[in-house]
Amino acid sequence: MSLFLKLLFRNKLAGFGAVVLAVIVVLALLTPILPLHPPNATNTANRFLRPLSDGHLLGTDHLGRDLLSRLMWGTRLSLAVGFAAALVAGLLGAAIGVMAGYFGGRTDNVTMRGVDMLMAFPYILLALAIVAVLGPGLLNALIAVAVVNIPFFARNIRGVTVGIAHREFIDAAKLAGMGHTRILLTEVVPNIVPVVVIAMSTTIGWMILETAGLSFLGLGSQPPQADLGSMLGEARSALITAPHTSIVPGVMILLIVMSVNLLGDGIRDALDPRLRSGALARPMATTRVERAEAPVPKGDGLLRIDELETQFQVGPRIYKAVNKVSLELKPGECLGLIGESGSGKSVTALSVMGLVASPPGVITGGAVRLNGQDLIGAPYELLRSLRGRKVAYIFQDPLSTLHPLYRIGDQLIEAIRVHEPVSHAQAHKRAVKLLEDVRIPNAAARFRAYPHELSGGMRQRVGIAMALANDPDIIIADEPTTALDVTVQAQILALLSDLRRSRGLAILFITHDFGVVGQLCDRVAVMYGGRIVEAGPTADVLAAPAHPYTARLIACVPELGGGRRVMAAIPGLPPAVDDLPPGCAFAPRCEKAQAACRTGEIALQGEARKVRCLFPEVAP
Amino acid sequence: MTIALKSTNLAKTFDIGKRLIGPPRAQVHAVHPVSLEVKTGETLGIVGESGCGKSTLARMLVGLTPPSAGTIEIEGKALNRADPAAFGRLIQYVFQDPVSSLNPRKTIQQIMEVPLRLLHGLRGRALDDRIAELFDAVNLRPEFLTRYPHEFSGGQAQRIGIARALAASPRILILDEPVSALDVSVQAQVLNLLAALKSEFNLTYLFISHDLAVVEAVSDRIAVLYFGSVVETGPAEKVFAAPRHPYTKLLADSAPVVGKPLGGAQAGELPDPLNPPPGCAFAGRCPRATDLCRAEVPDLRPVEGDQFAACHHPLDP
């Protein structure tokens, strides 16, 4: 709750709205005990007194009634009706939406078509019709406004409920013996409450306006009872001669609706988990760099990463995702970077071209040199010209990296023409050739396909074609086969291996699968807790791992042909990178750990075979 | 040995493009008639690639998806969800995504209480004792009970999911890709836990996975699914060591293994489910396919001993 308030008041406008609304609500609540004139006492001798006249702070209306008093009583009534209408509409709409979304099928179809029909009427017409049937009066106006707004809630809530009704915890509840009513009340409803609150907070102002509108037309509150709409309606005839009688209720409506809307937006932002995590914050074009100075290059090579440090700074916490990582990639070489989730392997790869989202990512040290040129802190224009042309990426999920609304061919052409000023026809020819190169059957026809029309394997081939579009020297492949089936994975790996040989590509291949590394890579580096713990030629590392973590991780991987057995496991969990233990990060899970492992910095030692361990399994 | 779970010609057809009135625009046969038997105390591994219908099959077996045709028998009696409590005590399900199978707005205590209250009528002390016992069985610390699901890692959340399934004291557990969302080092922990629980509580498992090595490591028997049909079944030690169906062989060859050259890179993919080919669904990718394969769907028939294959031209061992 205190977090919610903090988030809410971080938005200054929402805070302002909250304060204004609170003042209005408190005054409205206190109206009966404030020393005001009676709101309905007429005094025609004093009609149309100007504001600030004696005894009547805001003047009087056409019957000589005190405007301040009528304003306060009217505000009280308008607020009550607006809130009540929002509550009724919200609850009924949510109930309809939850039912339709949860039961689905015919129930959903019939209810939602009914709601659609309700929505098809212009709202004021519908409200008028309802009031015409029920007769004028404030309660009937309330009913009309509530009914008119039910479809909005029903549609909103239905959409959310459909998403929840297909979640696995609903299935689990069914299997635990829960009936539909109980599932709806205890599993579904708690998950949609925030949505209902958000929808209500953003529409309440609108409902106050609608109620005022009906009263303005004389269909809401009946004379002499004051509400903001009827005050405006009565003042209309004297708009020119006594403008203050219209301005006073008008300003109040403006204040109420504005403060409600500002507060509503604030509540929405504070409650929506996506917005809370900073989805609205636009990431910068390149990762933020806060580096003291670049380390001296330790050699050459096509791509050298020296002592790279990338952190995520979230509030007071610092996640050291990449902690002094050094790698080297020679032309035509395939380097495997292997590790479990959270080990920092993807962040290392994204740091190369400054693709880590900032905020919260910051590169705090190290250098990434492409042909000797340092890329950390390089101007955006330079990075942009290198991205895709010299260093290209292949990502895990091709469905989310390809634009769903453009044909794959057009996306390829765009990728080509970003870096090279060739004609559309030439680019088209090259794009088809690329699709053929990645062995997409019937490339000319598939050129016009949309991403969703292709299978996962075909999409990943398009992803590879995209990476090859500008003949890069280096491809960074981030788990490119993890989302694919094993038979398709074999096809993609064979393709990458062929392309690498025929085009002399250097590949940085990120994976969690030792089998894939063993088949594809010349050298491998193992990451744990943001650091490289072991590196060396693939065959050597896999045959005789030196770091206990590598050895035990390899032992965990079940191999086909082993038969039924108990599997080797590593007890415990990988460390959280915002709270790394001193010494070796693996020490808490390691059988061989000794006191020395838990203190100080342990260096990565060795030449061709490197290991960061005081007591390695084999001498490196 | 008694039969714990039996399906006879179980099939599921999904309607595509439903209309308010009238027939749907198209139909997809997610599961072609499948007959399976799982003996009491046995682990049957089901392996197949995405889209082969393995999850649909599993959901039908626990009554979450109504079958289009065929019957399911659990311990000799037809599947009957009329009494959800009695049914829940018979069979339970462990979900693939451990985090999404836990309601984000409930504490672990609240999640664990539901099956115990509703299926076993436990209250008060007895309830708390049973939860402590279950948490002990899956190696979780009792202080986790007051926390919310998002505070847990995948491995821990999957243990909670297993503990919840065990809370029903079921006789059969359907495990739908229980380790595919987990890291390798954690995957081994969960697999070992499942093996220990099985012998401790005398459970019967149906273990679904796309990972051949995992399935082989935990199963007594294996059924290979392709495009909604069982293409091969047999003892775990034989199916991948001596596959009889060319698809099983392709699967076994495709699994990346250290020290083995890249192989199995056969062209071709799953057929279009909206427009399935006549005959064997694998014929388009099969090096041994003949005109017979393209015309007639092969039945599952015994090849040798208890190894069955749905193939007109099964491989020699």
UniProtKB/TrEMBL annotation, chain A:
Matching InterPro entries: AAA+_ATPase (IPR003593), ABC_Ni/Peptide_Import (IPR050388), ABC_transporter-like_ATP-bd (IPR003439), ABC_transporter-like_CS (IPR017871), MetI-like (IPR000515), MetI-like_sf (IPR035906), Oligopep_ABC_C (IPR013563), OppC_N (IPR025966)
Main location: membrane
SMART domains: AAA (SM00382)
UniProt keywords, alphabetically: ATP-binding, Cell membrane, Membrane, Nucleotide-binding, Transmembrane, Transmembrane helix, Transport
Boundaries of every ABC transmembrane type-1 domain copy: 75-264
Membrane topology: Peripheral membrane protein; Multi-pass membrane protein
Location(s), subcellular: Cell inner membrane; Cell membrane
GO cellular component, one term: plasma membrane
Protein name: Peptide ABC transporter permease
Organism: Roseinatronobacter bogoriensis subsp. barguzinensis
Automatic annotation (TrEMBL), chain B:
CDD domains xrefs: ABC_NikE_OppD_transporters
Stretches assigned to the ABC transporter domain: 5-252
Subcellular location: Cell inner membrane
A GO MF label: ATP hydrolysis activity
Transport recorded as keyword: yes
Similarity comment: Belongs to the ABC transporter superfamily.
Keyword ATP-binding on entry: yes
Keywords: ATP-binding, Nucleotide-binding, Transport
Name of the protein in its database record: Peptide ABC transporter ATP-binding protein
Organism from which the protein derives: Roseinatronobacter bogoriensis subsp. barguzinensis
GO CC terms, sorted: plasma membrane
